[in-house]
Amino acid sequence: MQGYQEQGYGSTSDERDFVNLNFASEYSENFPKILQALGISLVVSSYQSHALMLLRSRADTLNCSVKKFVRPMGLSVSEDRLLVSTVNRIVNFKASDMSRSSVVSGNLDDLDALATKLRDEQRDTTTFKQLRSEQISAIKQCDVLFTERSSLTTGTLNTHDIAWGDEGLWVVNSSFSCLATLSSENGFTARWKPHFISELRPEDRCHLNGMAMLDGKPRYVTTFNTKDQQDSWRTELNGTLIDVEKNEILLDGLSMPHSPRCHEGLVYFCNSGCGEVVSYNPTTKTRSVIVTLPGFTRGLTFFGDLMLVATSHVRATKAVSDIPLSASHTERDTVCGIWVINKHTGAVLSNLKFKGDVSQLYDLCIIPNTTYPEMISGDDAISAHLYDYTQEVL
């Protein structure tokens, strides 16, 4: 395991709390075969476990590589880029053929053979050398390597969904009940808020959480209610699906909705408190339940005719707890896992269930064109010797 050693504000109190977590899972026999056949892998965030999990396949076997982050939530993935939101940062990883090639070639195997300035007696301890060796071994097994290129410090925005749009990186800023864009110049630029939110204050008034992009812009969002007071959703639920362009409530009375996604003319979202995935037709203004699962649905993505859904254990919280799922299930008989669904029929084709300490998942994304990716952060040992650069004629 190559852990992401994030320090400072929001860091976990004891590294052992992470290392000793049990990330064990069981899965349908066809789960890794589906990933392999499609030429994809999955990345899933678990804020409760302070972890990002890469689900990878090889020889009909599933592998789960775990990376440490502090409260990771929203994910955004493209063919060569992977972004993750943490408690107070957005971290940007980019696929690097150059870095991977330098490791695969064996040029970095012998630390003592590197130039003197690339070595450091204080840094290069036995532990450092061991971690570096483990990371080199992991990279040699991967087919795509993502390396950390940058991060933006935002403050605690309680960032939920994130996505690239025509105007840059959009985030759901739950703390300020708004949608925002990010840049290196400031923490965030507020771009839109629901019409019932009177002012921008870090009070998480309606628990704005989900964002669906359409044609390069945010088009739909989900909230837990329509109130305008601090933490109002913790005592009163009335979930909504909102049209951003019209600033109009399309659906209300939902149960803790999450993860709206635009797909083939429909808007899909998780009616999480009911364990449902729902489709909404913006033309006919009708909705349909696609599937009901034994867990708190949150995290949704598509690949062709397949719909992939994450579920979490239902749990007692300080927020309103009288949701349909908690009335019909206990934490013990709900599932924390990932489901592969036929989007047309709602039939479950495959699933993965976490059996250890992982109980809460937030986001789920497909990593295309790779079945065995790897990630290296700026704090990992081998990162000191990885380069990704271009050059002009010299």
TrEMBL record:
<protein>
    <recommendedName>
        <fullName>Conserved hypothetical protein CHP03032 domain-containing protein</fullName>
    </recommendedName>
</protein>
<dbReference type="Pfam" id="PF16261">
    <property type="entry name" value="DUF4915"/>
</dbReference>
<feature type="domain" description="Conserved hypothetical protein CHP03032">
    <location>
        <begin position="134"/>
        <end position="375"/>
    </location>
</feature>
<feature type="domain" description="Conserved hypothetical protein CHP03032">
    <location>
        <begin position="30"/>
        <end position="109"/>
    </location>
</feature>
<dbReference type="InterPro" id="IPR017481">
    <property type="entry name" value="CHP03032"/>
</dbReference>
